[in-house]
Design a protein that fits this description.
Number of helices: 27
Strand order of the largest sheet: 1-2-4-3-5-6-8
Oligomer: single chain
Strand content: 5-15%
Number of domains: 2
Shape: elongated
Structural class: alpha/beta
């Protein structure tokens, strides 16, 4: 995804960074931008159309490096401070107005239509970070990977490239000012060395930390830098056989849109499109491009290039909001998306970008006043973005905003014996302690250790603490079960989390206490963000039972039983084909994602969990003091397992229970504790 780059350009005319100077317009660069943005749009509409279309971002980075250097080539300023002020004023007017409008609109529409919950919480944070040029860091922190499916449902994911570009702008003026001196080769050499180091960083990080290689400036600097170096070094360049060079570069660029693989990106995947773009820029700038240059400089490509920044911003918002609502699974819906993208991009360019970019009063404001105003507006936009997220439960139209029905961590208001809740970090997970005010000093305690399914019992456990005046300690980390029955990969840090949690339980447990071990064991139909259910209904190839892991799990349980505790192992729960929170409203229930529904014949549910259940039954029978608790009879009737009961959702997504599902299981779980 890419855009800031679009921004980085000085526009059709290459606006100078200060003093009102302008670079000379270079015909064809608008057409090159059009190719880049259309490649990105095609990839986001359907990756099958253009599997490597995401490298359009790299094309934009190289264009940006060149055009920003070109735009300041004629700028004259006596002081470095004035030079920087002029440069940043132009960049702010070029990038920020359209970005701020986009953030406000998408935050508002998203607040109304997107469901609440864990899956959408990072969205507002990303939008607020984008306002300050930090969304690449926010995405790296929360999503971890641009290609992660959760990123595809965040309306601000595309702004990562703006963050990279704006961080590049912090470095650019110093290098450009240094180049004004007589000893030009010294700064050029430093920039060239920085590009080589960045290229090396991209290669190393792609193997060691691919998300960092994608999102961080040190691995992207070379793409912007080579564009700037071309402008600084190529003034006397004579291009011979320009048409041949341009045709070859266009062919290489087209090939990169098809052959570039996500798992080999940005290195070496970004190299071919960046070098092809560099050649095209050289040909377009120094002339002699023949028919390729005329094609790129034609009216239609130049027109698309002129709105490329707004198109880059708005296309992604349309894609994401349609994924959350109508879907994008038919050609008609994709055509509707294209129409909306085009309309919003043209409107943004005409009524936001152009008027403010050349606004005389804004250009004439004293620098302190101008930048103070920018900071104030940025703070206000970020505050509105976060405020809308905070207000989502009250203003949102999505049914899943009703936390008391949907959120398994919902804390009810209690009458007698209130329960205090405290959450602390434990490695990759958390410890949630529920402490009833009326609990006796020697009260029996409940310890719960498990993966996200343990965390999804937060409401049930809070209710147990209140109903039985029983202190509860919940240890939960995503994907980290206590009992292993196959060779499923554990997340990084799981072993340390599990060891620490069980050690704390062994140290605190007394005879008569209870340890509850929930976990996901039933094969999923599909992951939360997957579009399609596999033909085999998601059951897939069954992994063989891992006897060594089962033995290790039994040893962990024996160490607990030695403390005199009772262990309750949760039997595998049924799972749903579709995430209920994504299909709970009239404006999203008809999407292609929701078509498989949330109704599973009981016989199918039993078949899906049979292998895992048999393994857990064998483990509990081998361990005196351990017993199996099966929630399936409570969640299903004799014929089917349904996602809803009496109009209330039993599940939040495809396999975690909702608040209503928690309440349904409370009597059964209390019965197990009492026995």
């Amino acid at each position: 995804m890419r855009d800031g780059i679009l921004v980085a350009e000085g526009g059709a005319g290459g606006v100078a960074a200060g003093a009102g100077a302008r670079g000379v317009h270079i015909a064809g660069i608008g057409g090159l931008r059009a190719i880049a943005v259309l490649a990105v749009v095609a990839f986001h509409l359907d990756p099958r159309w253009l599997p490597g279309g995401f490298v359009g971002v790299d094309v934009f980075f190289v264009i940006s490096g060149f055009v920003v250097a070109h735009s300041v080539a004629g700028v004259r300023a006596e002081r470095f401070g004035a030079y920087c002020a002029g440069f940043y004023r132009r960049r702010c007017l070029r990038i920020l107005p359209a970005l701020y409008v986009y953030v406000l609109v998408v935050a508002l529409v998203g607040g109304l239509l997107m469901p609440g919950g864990e899956g959408t919480r990072p969205v507002a944070l990303t939008g607020a970070a984008a306002v300050f040029g930090l969304s690449n860091l926010a995405l790296l922190w929360k999503a971890g990977d641009y290609f992660a499916t959760a990123s595809a449902y965040n309306g601000f994911t595309q702004t990562w490239s703006l963050g990279v570009e704006e961080q590049y702008y912090l470095l650019f003026p110093a290098a450009a000012w240094w180049l004004r001196g007589r000893a030009r080769w010294a700064p050029v050499g430093v920039v060239a060395l920085a590009c080589l180091l960045s290229l090396a960083a991209a290669g190393w990080l792609t193997q060691a930390w691919r998300a960092g290689a994608f999102f961080l400036l040190p691995a992207r600097l070379w793409e912007l830098g080579i564009g700037a170096l071309l402008r600084w070094l190529g003034a006397g360049l004579a291009v011979r056989g320009g048409a041949l060079w341009a045709a070859g570069a266009l062919a290489a660029l087209a090939a990169s849109f098809v052959v570039t693989r996500e798992d080999a990106f940005p290195w070496p995947g970004a190299l071919l499109p960046c070098l092809a773009t560099l050649v095209l820029l050289a040909v377009l700038w120094r002339g002699g491009g023949g028919w390729p240059a005329r094609m790129l400089g034609a009216r239609a490509p130049e027109a698309i290039g002129a709105i490329s920044y707004s198109l880059y911003l708005w296309h992604w918002g349309v894609v994401v909001l349609m994924r959350w609502t109508l879907g994008l699974d038919t050609l008609a819906l994709k055509a509707l998306a294209v129409a909306l993208m085009a309309a919003l991009a043209v409107a943004s360019h005409r009524w936001v970008e152009r008027p403010l970019r050349h606004h005389r009063r804004l250009l004439a404001l004293p620098a302190p006043v101008f930048f103070a105003g920018v900071a104030g507006v940025a703070g206000a936009v970020a505050a509105v973005c976060l405020g809308l997220a905070y207000a989502k439960p009250r203003i949102g139209l999505a049914a899943s905003n009703a936390a008391a029905v949907w959120d398994p961590a919902f804390v009810p208001v209690e009458g007698t014996c209130p329960v205090a809740r405290r959450t602390t970090d434990v490695g990759i997970g958390w410890r949630i302690a529920d402490r009833p005010a009326c609990a006796a000093a020697d009260a029996r305690r409940l310890f719960v250790v498990g993966d996200s399914h343990a965390g999804a019992y937060a409401l049930l456990l809070h209710t147990v603490a209140h109903a039985r005046a029983m202190p509860v300690d919940l240890y939960t980390a995503g994907g980290c079960r206590v009992i292993d029955i196959d060779d499923s990969a554990l997340p990084p840090g799981c072993a340390a989390f599990r060891a620490r949690a069980l050690a704390e339980v062994r140290a605190a447990a007394r005879p008569g206490d209870v340890v509850f071990l929930p976990g996901l064991y039933t094969p999923l139909y599909r992951k939360l963000w997957d579009a399609d259910v596999p033909r085999d209904a998601g059951l897939g190839a069954q992994r063989p039972l891992d006897r060594a892991r089962i033995a290790a799990s039994e040893a962990r349980l024996r160490a607990l039983i030695a403390r005199g505790v009772t262990i309750i192992v949760e039997a595998p729960k049924p799972v749903m084909p579709s995430a209920l929170f994504r299909c709970a409203d009239g404006f999203n229930r008809g999407s292609g994602y929701c078509r498989p529904g949330w109704h599973v014949p009981r016989a199918e549910a039993e078949r899906r969990r049979a292998r895992a259940r048999a393994a857990l039954v064998a483990i509990t029978r081998a361990l005196p003091g351990a017993r199996l608790w099966d929630p399936l009879p409570l969640l299903c009737d004799a014929r089917a397992c349904d996602g809803y009961r009496d109009g209330a959702p039993l599940y939040y997504d495809t396999h975690h229970l909702s608040a209503a599902g928690n309440r349904l299981l409370v009597p059964g779980f209390l019965g197990v504790l009492d026995r």
